[in-house]
Amino acid sequence: MTRTRDPAHALLLGGLRFESRDTERAYRRWRIDTVTPFVRIGYIGSAPSWILLLIAMIFLDPHAAHRAAGWVVGWILLLLVLTWLTVPPRLRRTVMPLAAAANCLAGFLVVWLTSEVALAGEVTQTRAGVMIAGLLVVMFFGYGIFRIPPGVAMAAVTPYAAFGSYQLLQNYNDGELNGVESASLAAAEWIAYLGCLMVCVVIEIVERRAFCKDQIIDAQQRELRHSRETIRRYVPRPVFEHIVSGDTVGIDVPTRRRVTVLFADLVGFTDLADRVEAEILTQVVNDYMTTMSQLVDEHGGLVNEFAGDGLMALFGAPDEMDVEEQASSAVLAAQAMQDGLPALNGQWRRLGVSGPMRMRIGIDTGVLSVGSFGSEGRMTYTAIGLHTNIAARLQAQCEPGRILLSDYCWHLVKDRISCEPVGEVQCKGVHYPVPVYSPSGAGG
Asked: How far apart are CA 321 and CA 317, in angstroms?
């Protein structure tokens, strides 16, 4: 399989630089955020070491301690200041240069203390050995703990490493160290130098690859959020939640269950569509569908179909609901929809829509086939069956501004919602007239 090259995250120089300048700048900003805690730990961790060094000098050589005290105390105070400078976000860009400078100064301070102050009375071999040991510790901080880039780390470490070697060369020229001793100490220093540099390079490569993975994951998460948001706009919320959670069994395979169906329609919408501009018509439809969908959702239902100015809502699917509860919720939602229409008419009037729009609603409860129907390319979650047709017929026969319930739906809600009989409706596929009821106060 051929791997597609991603130019935005392509690496050059063996993985030490990004091909894209934008990615390189983004990486450097990201690296500062990831490096700052390590630099702060390095400062805090090294300060006690210098304090212990000063205490040891006081006991071993008070005179040397007196000479070094000012420098060491000043250095500790500087470390505290550098630690504080890692806190303000506006100073974060200075973190790595300051860490490099601090490491370089620490290296020179170690050389000076070991060669000229703390161990001035000791034999040269002892001074040189302690100097190299101290330099290795500082070198480890520069190349490892601080986690600064290899180029910056080399700029910090190389000067004091070279100065340490120069001191060894001076000791050799003065006859204080023989060739084997000076060469061995210098070799130990530069082997450690190269080893730490390799570790620093590996850390840099790993960090850049980690950054790539983070960037790719972030991009995928953004795409996933965008895809989910897009799907959510086209799919009813309960169906969307089932899809996202992976529980698609209840929506993929149609099942027979008792649900309540609500149909709603705006009266006179067709005439309105012929009279107003497309922009105004779009605003009217979007306002209407948004408001009605929210009201259905608040009452536990889902709007599964839009058709022009009409909508179909289900109560009791895909999540099961007690049959009396679903019927009551559907009627309460219908009442809220009728109550919410005057406010929409006020908005539409300001757009130039003359005359109030009125709505018809029909509701029925019964056993239907509920699930996903359609083709492999496009599926729709809906309910199919006789009671869907009855609810649609009730809506078509309803007077504008009213709500019609089938007799079975009325039996389910009569103890909770006051209704009044309004006659019978003949529905296609039903061999007898269907008695219908209307909630009290829903009319006019």
From this structure: 8
